[in-house]
């Protein structure tokens, strides 16, 4: 698991528009990188809608919000279209970014254990360092809490 003051692991993946997005694209800018299990599911929809509702505030704070799941670009675009989302969603179909950030973990639900994405968020400062790390995120109120973390940087 990652912790604050570490360099954020570099990443590159395509977004919903099949455009390659990399961490180095945001040098000098803050980034909220959040991982979620699956497009268009209840908790993931709450989180995406809440980040979208606050996107102007994140932009004013010189911060880019990026969601990551193992869904493909087409799934991401459908999710964005359905809810008019205003964030980039990266398609980590091979799980490389999930592995680098330590969010691909054994999860248990209804007595069944299986590997999956643990909902997690990383705030990366303008120098590429991890300023905040949270594994096991509760989506309710999370976007607002992350905005406050970003504004405090």
TrEMBL record:
Q: Does the keyword Oxidoreductase apply?
A: yes
The record lists the catalysed reaction(s) as: a hydroperoxide + [thioredoxin]-dithiol = an alcohol + [thioredoxin]-disulfide + H2O
Q: Which domain of life is it from?
A: Bacteria
- Its signal peptide is none
Q: Does the keyword Transcription regulation apply?
A: no
Instruction: Please report the stretch or stretches of sequence annotated as the Thioredoxin domain.
Output: 2-153
Q: What class of enzyme is it?
A: oxidoreductase
Q: Which UniProt keywords apply?
A: Antioxidant, Disulfide bond, Oxidoreductase, Peroxidase, Redox-active center
EC identifiers of the protein: 1.11.1.24
A Pfam family (short name) is AhpC-TSA
The similarity annotation says:
Belongs to the peroxiredoxin family. BCP/PrxQ subfamily.
Q: How does it assemble?
A: Monomer.
Its function? Thiol-specific peroxidase that catalyzes the reduction of hydrogen peroxide and organic hydroperoxides to water and alcohols, respectively. Plays a role in cell protection against oxidative stress by detoxifying peroxides and as sensor of hydrogen peroxide-mediated signaling events.
Q: What is this protein called?
A: thioredoxin-dependent peroxiredoxin
According to its UniProt entry, this protein's organism is: Thiomicrorhabdus marina
